[in-house]
Amino acid sequence: MDGLYTQNHTNLSAYEAALDASRLPTARGLRQTFDDRVRHHAIERLLCDMQLDLDQLEESFGIDAQRYLADTLARLETLARDGLLAWHGKRLVATPIGRLLIHHLAMAFDAHPPHQPDSRNS
Fold first, then answer.
1. How many domains is the chain partitioned into structurally?
2. Contact 107, 113 (CB under 8 A)
3. 67-77 pLDDT, tens per residue?
């Protein structure tokens, strides 16, 4: 569903009951904000392309990406100093070592970081 984050029931009985009643087996959901959409796009590009083009982000969302993501980009400076990413103009590129830790790099863009490492239901 566009603009929503949803999670299905994790209990099989509840999941099947929803389907039997011709309902989606959704247990909970959140409506995405503009910020969620920007950050989702940034994370997706990093995970899929191993890079993020800030010019493309600006064009897609009508923002000044460096200003909009200033806090996030500041957090990434340590990772850049550690050799995990490099800047090529306004493109953030994961280095070969950074590719091994791409999820860690992408987490810097997450406005709702996980509270615990348990990701069984994601």
1. 1
2. yes
3. 999 999 999 99
